[in-house]
Amino acid sequence: MKIFITGGHGQLGRDVNTLLSKEHNVVSLGSKELDISSRAAVESVIRKERPDVLINCAAYTAVDNCETEKDQAFAVNAKGPENLAIAMEVIAGRLIHISTDYVFDGNKAANENYIESDPTAPLSVYGQSKLAGEEAISVHSSNHLILRTAWLYGIKGNNFLKTMLKLALTDSTRELKVVNDQFGSLTWTATLARQTEAVLSNTMQGIAHATAEDASTWYEGACYFLDAMAIPYNISPCTTKEYPTPAHRPANSILENNRLKQAGLSVFKTWQEDIDHFVKLYKKELIKEATPH
Ligand SMILES: NC(=O)c1ccc[n+]([C@@H]2O[C@H](COP(=O)([O-])OP(=O)(O)OC[C@H]3O[C@@H](n4cnc5c(N)ncnc54)[C@H](OP(=O)(O)O)[C@@H]3O)[C@@H](O)[C@H]2O)c1
After folding, report:
1. Closest CA to 58 of 7, 18, 15, 105
2. How far apart are CA 88 and CA 81, in angstroms?
3. What sign for the dihedral angle of Cα 138, 139, 142, 143?
4. CB under 6 Å to ligand 1: residues?
């Protein structure tokens, strides 16, 4: 199968490329090679490459910066997917797009997970721009699957777990406050890449939630990861109010992989099992990268 990856240099894009290149003919481009917000550039590359499936891992993911960079957020997260959907429709290809838990307002009770048909109500510009991307795809593509994921971490690129490790290694005695009233599922990009592979040629259409099973707060996730790494730390829980950020984030970000499970397609394990596996594979590399020089 010929597969085209956009945002190929991001943390998810790299893992998708590594996995799919084993079995498929993959073309993976970063933002410098293809800017998805340019309709002309997208049309020209897709017409030339004619992939069977396009996997869009590109996004403007700096959630707080989106609050002040609204035009840029919408250009990449809304116009970009629209351009890809239109170009793939012309060649009758399938579009797999990655979206986010931040399309919800998080006001459901903490023990109630969000399913695909729940009403969306983003709290942030990032969430609004990603929702606009979902809507554009549903209008312009007759063969697409949108995988909504959350709280990603992987071995390539920057993420919350790597930040926690870096801070703990810099000074394990310095107290760090980490938010303990937002709930979600830390999701490994390598597992999401496997999920993407599992739906490549499936005919499922629309939106499917795609996150690790079970949930934690950011505080619980950080402690679990640093315990697994056997790194000393001094982390205390705090509330969202005590740690204000430019973008508002949902208190409940827990997604239920309802559709993938019903179709027997979900590859996800618990977030704890994936962190254990991640640490087992990459402990040395993670410490080397995060150690101050
Ligand atoms: N990270 C999370 O916690 C999280 C949570 C929920 C959903 N998601 C979604 O998951 C997907 C993958 O996220 P990620 O964590 O892998 O993000 P990432 O590491 O930030 O990668 C995103 C990539 O998109 C590229 N990009 C930005 N603007 C572009 C443009 N105009 N044209 C083409 N490429 C562009 C970036 O390239 P440059 O670096 O060159 O700009 C970057 O390599 C995204 O759709 C994101 O919204 C992420």
Report:
1. 7
2. 10
3. negative
4. 6-7, 9-13, 30-31, 34-37, 57-61, 76, 80, 98, 100-101, 130, 149-152, 157
**Smallest Cα–Cα separation from 131: which of 100, 161, 166?**
100
**Residues of the chain whose pLDDT is less than 50?**
none
Q: What is the pTM of this model?
A: 0.96
Ligand 1 midpoint to CA 59 (Å): 4
Neighbours of 92 (CB within 10 A): 10
Domain boundaries, the chain: 2-159+185-215+253-269
3-class DSSP assignment, residue 105 = coil
Q: Cα(98) to centroid of ligand 1, in Å?
A: 9
Query: Catalytic residue among 102, 126, 153, 219, which?
Result: 126
Task: Note the pLDDT tens digit of each residue in 145-190.
Answer: 999 999 999 999 899 999 999 999 999 899 999 999 999 999 999 9
Instruction: Please tell me the CATH code under which domain 2-159+185-215+253-269 is placed.
Output: 3.40.50.720
